Amino acid sequence: MLQANELRIGNWYNVGLTGQETPEKFELWTEALDFEAYGSGIPLTHEIMEKCGFYFNHPFYEIKNPSAAGIIKISFDEEGDDGFVYDFMTRLHYLHQLQTLFFSLTNGIELNYIP
Q: What does the pLDDT average to over 49-78?
């Protein structure tokens, strides 16, 4: 289960019973009881990376940093089940983790994601 303190306002997550999840945006008025009972992270996949504006440039997914010169690079761990990796240390398994990292690296710019 996903806890409300794992998200920032504006992060996307899944809500609903397993197999019937739908993506929702975490808002100030999201009810904690429903959220903690039925909320789960949206697994980070190649498709989600592309929907967020990243493009694949083997071996990285890349996106231009809108707040500074340079590119944010995130790789996919093909060796194991460790998800996506930023800077060889930060493991990302869910969309809300990627959104929070992007927000931090870009000085407060939201990652564009449309489900």
A: 85
